[in-house]
Structures are given as C-alpha cells and as structure tokens.
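Loading example: each entry is read as two labelled lines plus one structure line.
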Amino acid sequence: MKRVYKITLLFGITILVASCHNNSAPNYQYFPNMYESVGYETYSESNAFKNGKEGQLPVDGTINRGFVPYEYENTPEGYELAKANLKSPIDSLDRSSDKGQALYEIYCISCHGAAGNGKGKLVEREKFLGVPSYKDRVITEGSVFHVVTYGLNAMGSHANQLSAHERWLVADYVLKLRSQL
Amino acid sequence: MKKVGNHNSNSRKLFLSLALMLTFSLTSFAQDATPAAATEAPVAAQGGDPVKGKELFNSNCAACHKLDAKSTGPALRGIAQKHDMAWIYKWVHNSADLIKSGDAAAVKVFEENNKVPMTAFPALSEGDIDSIIAYTSEVKAEAPAPVPGTAVAGSSDQGGISNSVILGALALVMAMLVVMLFLVNNVLRKVAKANGIEVASKTPTTPIWKAFAKNQFLVLVTSIFLLLASAYFVYGFLMQVGVDQNYEPIQPIHYSHKIHAGDNEINCKYCHSAARVSKNAGIPSLNVCMNCHKNIAEVAESTATPEYSKAFYDEQIQKLYTAVGWDKSTQSYTGKSQPVKWVRIHNLPDFVYFNHSQHVTVAGIECQTCHGPVETYEIQKQFAPLTMGWCINCHRKTDVKMEGNEYYTKIHEELSKKYGVDKLTAAQMGGLECGKCHY
C-alpha cells in the first residue's frame, strides 16, 4: 500500500512540473535587469510620455530629413491637376532597374495582380472586389503617384509603407505594365 | 458491494450525458452540411444574364457597392424594385447629369449619401446594365437557421471539447477498470477465506533491495549513473532558462497569419514594411489593416474552421474597428481610437544588436529561415531559440551575397585571397566579432 502512495506522489509531482510549462507565458530569466534595461524599447509602454506609449508622433510642424512637400490636395480637383501636371523626378538608371517591380510585387500585387489586370489573389478569391485593370483607366505618372499617396475610394493610401522615391519607382512600373496589357 | 453499485449508476449517468452531447454535436454538423441551394430561385429582371452581371458588377461596381451592406454607395440588392429601368440606365450612364437635371429621386439619393459622386459609366450598354440588375435581383441565399437546442453542443470550439470529452471518458473507464480489479481481488480473497481455502502466501526470501545494497560494485555504478543523469537534466534545465522558443502569447486581437499570409498570400513586407529598411520589422499600424478591412467587414463562411467559427472571426474584425474607431454602418471614422496592445514575442536582450535590414535586404534571407513557416501559423509563436549559438551557427554556414553589391567588391577580393576561398561566409567577414553584436 505504501508503495502505491509513493508512486502516485511521484506521478503527481511529474505531472505538476510538466504542466507548469506554459507556452503563453515567457520563460524565467537569469538576471532580468540585464535583459530588460531601464531605457525604453521599441513599442514598449513608458512613463516618459504623457500617453504612456513609446511610439510617438512627430511634434507638429516638424519635417523629416529629405522631406519633399507634395502640393496637390486630396480632392477630385487635386487628382486632375496631378494627372495633368505632375512629372516624375527619377532618372533613367532607376527606370531601368527592377526595384519598381520588386516593390510592386510586395504592395500592389494582392489586389492588382502581377500583370496589372485587376486580377490579384484577393480578387480571385472574391475577398476584395472592384479592382480595375490599368488598361481601363486613363492614368499618367502623376495620377498614379497621387493615388498611391492618398488612395482613391476603396484603395487606401500607401504613403506610410513607401517613401516618395519608392512611389515614383512603382508608378513607373505601373505604366510599364499598362503598356503591356 | 453497495459502494460498487453506486459507482455504476454514476457512471451510467455520465455515459448518458456523453452520448447526449455526442448526438447533439452530430446533428449540428449535419446542419452545416445541408446545402443552401433551395432558396436560390433567380428572379431574372428583363432577361439579363445574372452570371455575366456578376462579372460586370464585380469589376465595375463592387468598389463602391455591396449587395447587402452599405459601402461607399448604398446596398444594391433589390434595387430594381426601387427605381424603374429607364431611370437606372440614365443614372449609371451619368448620375451627375441626372442630378443636375433636378430629377427628384436622383437628388434625394445623392443627398442621402453625403453627396459622394458616383463614377459615370457611359460605356456600359443597356444590356450590360440589365445583366447587372438581374444579378442584384437574385434572392439572397439564406444561411441555414440554427435549430434551438443544438446551441449547447455547437458552441465555438466544438472540436476541442468533444476530443477532450472522449479522452476524459477513456481515462475514467481505465480508472474504473483498475478499481474493479482491486475489488474483485478482495472479494475473491474473502470468498476463499470463507470456504477455508488457504491463499498461497509468499515464502520469505531476501528482498531484492537488500541483495542490491550488499553488492557494492552495483551500488557504485548506479550512483554514478544517477549522478550523470541528474547532471544532464539540471544542465538541460539551466540552458533553457531565458530561452522563449515556442512562446505564443494570447494577443488582444486573434490575428491569423495563416489566413493573411498563407491563404491570401499577402507579402510579409506589406505589413512588416520596416523590415526592408530598418532595424525593426515593426508591427503594422492600424491604417495598414484598414487598406483592406474598410472593405472586408466579415469573413466568408468557408474561412471558418471547426475550431474558430465565423462569429468568432467577425468579432475579431469588430475589435479592429473599435480600435481604429471605424463605424461600419456609416462607413466613416468616429475619431475615437485606442491602441491595440500586441504582446511582443521575439525579444532579444538589450545587450544584443540585431538589424533586420542587414539580413533581409543586404543578405537576402527569407523571413521563414528565422521565423519558421509563419504562413501556416494560426497563432504567431517564436520559432527559433534566439540564442547566441543560433546566430553564430548561421553566420558560420551562410555565404554573404556579394553579387550586385559594389560595397563588397574590394573587401571580397582581399578576404578571399586571405582565406583562399571563392565564397565568404558571414563569419569570415567578421560575423563572429563580439563587437558586431554586443556594444
């Protein structure tokens, strides 16, 4: 009888220890203050700021380095003006590189498709509808840049994923695709 | 014996309720399987072709209109009952003209929808519009109504429950068998005693442990073995302190990489866009989600799995809307937003420097090499141990991508001469120097 108790006790302890391992909680650390410094980390909560977040918006009126103002407004009139007047600043070296294609295949392909015919993966699976073929739209470099910057109806702005220079590269590639459709 | 009887009646109750639950979950599965085709009687409007109409609708109108819900424009199902066809032709060909002409119905629709102009479609023929209207006149396929009573068994995580119920039942049966064996043995002994039969008792011999304790060599060997084994386990335990492999915290929004990066093949960098250019890969800000989710307010029936129901997924998207402050019914931002507190999974200690752009853009390493098959993860977890040994091993094995990188041409020449090799590993280029990762 005593043996039975001992065995159950052993089993119980093993199970208890094994079940302590929990994937939804982080593991122990040797010296936590070596791992978690006093300085705040990316995305952490922090008392250093009023709203308690490390991620802050730039102060009003500040401008990033290399910022180029964009003067066309996000209105139908601004769109028409951009379509008529805006010209690409990128040079022939950039135009012949495949950077534009690489970016297009990250950011646009899910909706517009590899060929630009409006048949991306999301459209094929009927998750996101109403994506036009580039061929059916009257577009220019300027208007593509304008649309990627501000978005248009159901299409959102991609300005925070792509820098101005990268948007020009993509715009150039879009026109290349359009001429092949 | 009375005790045993009691036990039995308890277990009968248990079995009964188990059987009940199983039958219920069976009926609810059967419900899912009944096809919804019965209600799909097309009400073809003026001889248009609904199949062609669907195609035209999806490519021209779906950007702003849905069949059953307001999007940029109003819902279009059953629109033929609201306006006559002549009006609809005029409207679709050029709605701005119709509004300008002072048509009462047109002005009213325009004003009800915050005066958003609708694109003009002069190129669509009347036949095309007929087809579109035929498509919008189709009766909505009804989802099978849930039968009251199945609700208990058919709750969201059905598969999980019935599995663990079965396992539990099996364990119970095993336990009962053991108890019964014990009791039977007792009873037999009692019967034997009553009948005067002698139960064979053991003859006393030296117990095995005493014999063992006398053999000193055996004791020595076993204790060495035990010491080694426990040292091994203690070492293993100490080495895993501070390593968070397979850590998968519960996130505030159940966001599935399997659905986004797997099924819908969205590129990792669409969301983790900073990985191309900076130290951090970054968690996407919610405006990136809204590029798609302005339009995707709910998941399709086919996305739901036995483990996660459609209602569960839709609730998660609703959480996203609450966080960004997006009002589905008016299709506009309310301006009241709150941060989503994602729980950080991968986190190197602060004394290590790791840079994504160096590995992703310069070295051209796929995300999956370090983060595992993320496109199959329903719940994101840490795939690699993120120990120093892991980094170093890879630096020893992986060649540096030299082609097309002018920055490396000179150093490549010098180093390949020094090591007498064609290709350089990251280690040979200095990837083992303490100061590269620690400073």
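Residues 257-437 of chain B form one domain.
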